[in-house]
């Protein structure tokens, strides 16, 4: 992981070629743009995930950061979803929105953050949903900066498996500096070790297996240096707390490979609308603030060893009771042609009446009340299969949501509904009307003769 100092504002383009000992790769480039004033924030959409179909997927954008320590806003969007999926984000402006992976296949979600002046470059995360066994996800841990001859412990314990199967680990050093004799000890355990015996970069690769299938590989870069090495910030673990709690942020796990004393710089980069939370001492190793409003708080930590800043580290604090989403969304809409049942689920402001309508005709279909978390769920029999739906509540209208399973001739189909009581009543009504019509249509002469 080479470094350079961008000493003049402008764009720097760096190219990379890798070689496996036999052939060179195609060239890849990265552009670094610097300005004399504000720097663009960096979006982090979180790690890729593997989940079961119909799982509720929690995204995590709290790893996003800003070098100027400005407050951030979040803008999530769906780039692609499997064919037939009706997945919708619960709240696209939240730090950690969610969605239901209702079909098997890949879901690609994009995050852009803004520091009040400029947008970040987009970052994406891929969620793979499967109906059977899902592949595990390897996590080789954070990059490290160390001194030459340091003993390094890699950590794969953050690797996961959606099916909760036991994992096995296979580590390899896929890159090391010229002249290094470094080898991994205990390469089939979660935490192998090696000695960084030469200055330069060491690349550790991890693949995990759930007993059925391998994960995609994940890598970690360990940089050993002979001069001053940049410190590493650690903002602590995410927390979920009650409103009214005073939170103590803990940066004491931050470290410096050279053993230099550290200074701390904490910032609240995101807090709920209406919150007046302030950090008690932003330059202490343990800063604190009062959680005064329900929602998500993101704190960023940068440490300095007297010479250079660390990369930012972040931690997210969520309240146990989350505020209602400000918008309204239909997360699932599915049609069952055999029963004529329409299943609709989504979110809207708490305690409101949600009206579901045919998106094309505006015809009301059903209403429901949201629960305390703003969720609604309906199972309703309809006479005609709609093509798409919208939801309305409190003057808000959701985006048009296509109905999964709707026939090509949607809007004109009347499915068989053997258990439909309304149809039975309608048939009885028609039968009674026919009998009345027959009685009334008899001629007065015939009626008089019968009266006699």
Structural account:
With 452 residues, the chain is mostly beta strands. It has 4 domains: 10-130, Immunoglobulin-like, CATH 2.60.40.10; 144-225, Immunoglobulins (Immunoglobulin-like, Sandwich), CATH 2.60.40.10; 239-319, Immunoglobulins (Immunoglobulin-like, Sandwich), CATH 2.60.40.10; 329-423, Immunoglobulin-like, CATH 2.60.40. Helix content is 6%, strand content 36%. It has 2 helices and 28 strands. The chain has helices spanning 421-440, 444-451; strands at residues 10-16, 28-34, 49-52, 56-58, 73-80, 98-100, 105-114, 123-130, 144-147, 151-153, 168-175, 193-195, 200-209, 218-225, 239-241, 246-248, 263-270, 288-290, 296-304, 313-319, 329-336, 341-347, 353-358, 364-369, 375-381, 388-393, 396-397, 401-402. The strands form 9 sheets. Strands 23, 24, 26, 27 and 28 form a 5-stranded antiparallel sheet that branches. The chain has a 4-stranded mixed sheet with strand order 3-8-7-5, with no helix packed on it. The longest helix is centred in the last third of the chain and has 20 residues, at 421-440. It is globular and about 75 Å long. The protein starts with 9 loop residues before the first strand and ends with a helix.
Tell me roughly what share of residues is in helical segments.
under 10%
**Overall body shape:** globular
Compressed to H and E, one letter per element, the order equals EEEEEEEEEEEEEEEEEEEEEEEEEEEEHH
Tally of domains = 4
Q: Write down the CATH topology of the largest domain.
A: Immunoglobulin-like
Largest sheet: 5 strands, antiparallel
CATH class of the largest domain: Mainly Beta
CATH architecture of the largest domain: Sandwich
Structural class computed from helices and strand pairing: mainly beta
* CATH H-tier superfamily of the largest domain: Immunoglobulins
Give the low-pLDDT segments. 413-452
Tally of DSSP helical segments: 2
Bin the strand percentage. 35-45%
In total, the number of strands is: 28
Average the pLDDT over all residues and give the rounded result.
83
C-alpha Rg, in Å?
30 Å
End-to-end C-alpha gap? 111 Å
